[in-house]
Amino acid sequence: MDAMGKVNDLLNAESILKWDARTMMPPGGAVTRGKQVSTLAVLARDLLVSDDTRRKLDAAAREMAAKPEDAVEQVMIAQARAAIDYHLAIPASLLQRRTELGSIGQVVWAKARAENDFASFAPILEQTVALNREMAEVIGYSEHPYDALMFRFEPGETVATLKTLFGRLREALLPLVRAIGEKPEPRFDFLRRHYPIDRQHQFALKMAETVGYDLNRGRLDTTVHPFEVSFTRNDVRITTRFNPTYMPASLFGALHEAGHGLYEQGVDDAYTRTPFATDLVGLYAVGGVSFGAHESQSRLWENHVGRARAFWNIHFATAQEFYPEQLGDVTAEEFYRAINRCKPGFIRVEADELTYDFHVMLRTDIEAALIDGSLKVKDLPEAWNAKIKEYLGLDVPNDTLGVLQDVHWSSGQIGTFCNYTIGNVMAGQLFETASRDPVIAEGLSSGNYDPLRAFMVEHVHQHGRRYSRDTLLVKATGRPLDPEPYIAHLTRKYSELYEL
Amino acid sequence: MDAMGKVNDLLNAESILKWDARTMMPPGGAVTRGKQVSTLAVLARDLLVSDDTRRKLDAAAREMAAKPEDAVEQVMIAQARAAIDYHLAIPASLLQRRTELGSIGQVVWAKARAENDFASFAPILEQTVALNREMAEVIGYSEHPYDALMFRFEPGETVATLKTLFGRLREALLPLVRAIGEKPEPRFDFLRRHYPIDRQHQFALKMAETVGYDLNRGRLDTTVHPFEVSFTRNDVRITTRFNPTYMPASLFGALHEAGHGLYEQGVDDAYTRTPFATDLVGLYAVGGVSFGAHESQSRLWENHVGRARAFWNIHFATAQEFYPEQLGDVTAEEFYRAINRCKPGFIRVEADELTYDFHVMLRTDIEAALIDGSLKVKDLPEAWNAKIKEYLGLDVPNDTLGVLQDVHWSSGQIGTFCNYTIGNVMAGQLFETASRDPVIAEGLSSGNYDPLRAFMVEHVHQHGRRYSRDTLLVKATGRPLDPEPYIAHLTRKYSELYEL
């Protein structure tokens, strides 16, 4: 499987070049860097689907034929072959058109957003929808073309499964959001005090280390949008953003990305440079099995651990040491309530734990409707604003704060939004099972996160991409994706916080 | 020539991965990074020598047949074909053995150097010599096998040409070194005061910008050994080292690397991603035409500009602003004399401008003698120590300060040392011609380095790898490599400094 190792190397190299472009590269380097990234991406794909690789896979399959179907080698070979079929089904001309559309799209979108001019972005979006419909046809699907587009990010998820899931979430969570709207807000003035950026960096890093992020195989940098990226399990980097007058942005950004980082750092070393540490369909060097599974780990450490009362009962003293002036007149309980303030807003990436999913559901439903033709691009702002009104009770004042806010569609990409909510649901399910273990529960109240992390390593991280997301969930919790633990968590937490 | 663009992209990606490994990578990432780098290096070579690339070159050659032999396209094709022949002559097994020897060698060498144990490194060095002799045979040469090994770094240079050059340098410079040994030392205590590292970083960067290093296409980082590396002319990075009690290390490290950086930043943009910005023989994405030519630019800006009295007559006031406590009781003249102190020592990388070449000549002569068999590895320490005594009048106390000091041989590499002295000589020659121009001379005394840089861009930088080093020199100065201007510069400078 040396060819798979080389594909992994190329994709990791591509990731390094992209990380560097976002963190270190001087501005003049952008254009030639784009060419370097593109050359690596094309070479990785070409190497994967090459006759030589396919011959080697055939030979390996013959050699391994006696092994059971679920043997590591058999699963790797099957995954590689399935990915090759996926790529060979997509004509090069279609990929080329998407790349071209993406590079124009980002420029047009940035201008449209700045100028609140949806009409100028609409033609790009129409082409994006048409192109993704073509893409869905060549990839194939049973029921809904949008299923084919989600496959790359959340294999197995369909419009039908999401309809059930989203219905249940809306039913359970909308009453909570509405009830909170009637309640007084907690104190949160102290979060908006001046927090020096170098202190924020040190504190965010300390909290990331506290939950187990390994700095011998990691580092924290600064970017406009926080992200995590790994170049094998041995080099897993995170970034966060720093706002001198809003400290939670850097803190929870770092905890979120550290959660992603723990997943990658925990993949079995034996899977390094194999298909179990390479998304051969998405052509991305990653050990997490789906975008949703990945998000489950970031949301678990950010929300279930980092926004819990138990966490701040222990670590608020450290926060006060870092910020004696800013937090001197604040109690741990006030801090806990402030970082969990629920406040419906227009912007997804600024949403609180409870309202976040509504932003996601609205986008996913809209994407599916665009793809099956039941919604037209020209009617999109109206549909968007109606949903924001329905879910969050807000009147969207302009498209910049509405339909133009996300970068995703401008890159020619459709099908990625559901992962965020699946991650939340999966986090709730895993956390419920894990915290039933008294050792883990005791660790959470005493500030020892090793037992919880060990649970995640055992049931999620170490397996890399070996099992599907739902197989992982069945093995870890006894059942596939189930929203009830997540709903119970939010209901319990917010009922208590807002005395509902 | 799209294939050449891809080779350049891969080699640039390899450079980015190596830069990252030295500046940013967490320690845990080393092993898998090694595999990623190796995969890129192998793919770049394979792509260059592939049947497909050769067919494309043949087709391009037919298309361009009507153009004159020195047309850009013809030269590019000829260079690519020559590089392919070079690589195809070297058996894969030989490359493999050198890689393996290099990875063992570095470990054995580091231990031997730490423990002052030449005997434990000798077997590695014997294998390195034998392997390089094999390498010389397959590459081919007319007179001396060492010529074949220098080809990759300094095409056209031979043992015969170096014999003449080194003889003349020794004859002219040894009397200077000896005469200075009889003279009193200048004051230099203030260079050893405490200089905070963040101030050093700012000052070094300011001086690099002063000579024209473009930060829109560059950045300065910290490493143990300073270096420059480019990822096309649009992203040219430098590093320096910081010693809190020896400020010149960071300052002249940065000026030296900025000199390298100016070369790469000055290559014609039309040559980006072409053979004129790619060392296809050395498989390294670089615009400089030889290692010696590159060194001429670093030494020119470090020594002819940065260690000149005129430079500090202007910029010493800035130095005092940065370091009011450290330099408050110092004059510009004292500073100038201190940074030009001549003091024979054991370590090449710490040598002053005048004694540096003796370290280089000694290594080059020893390498040539090892390769032709006239010197045996076991006799190496004795030969080394005898030369240090002869040239610098010093008794080498141990091999750690002698024959074990350089990393070069441990990586399986022989043939790279002469570049340093060729760079010095070439810098002297170019500087003499340039500074005859009254506008350039006026700029040097008034602190405007644009005219000198414009000369270098016109005569050296912009051409990238289009012309050979000596063709460049003939075009710029009217003659090929000539040590007399360099000798005149050192004689004038040191005679005045030490009242010889």
Automatic annotation (TrEMBL), chains A, B:
BP GO terms, sorted: proteolysis
Catalytic activity: Release of a C-terminal amino acid with broad specificity, except for -Pro
SUPFAM superfamilies in alphabetical order: Metalloproteases ('zincins'), catalytic domain
Entries under PROSITE patterns matching the protein: PEPTIDASE_M32
Residue positions binding Zn(2+): H256, H260, E295
Reported cofactor(s): Zn(2+)
Record-annotated active site: E257
Recorded superkingdom: Bacteria
Note on how the cofactor is bound: Binds 1 zinc ion per subunit.
Pfam families, per the entry: Peptidase_M32 (PF02074)
EC number: 3.4.17.19
Function: Broad specificity carboxypetidase that releases amino acids sequentially from the C-terminus, including neutral, aromatic, polar and basic residues.
Membership in a protein family: Belongs to the peptidase M32 family.
Protein name: Metal-dependent carboxypeptidase
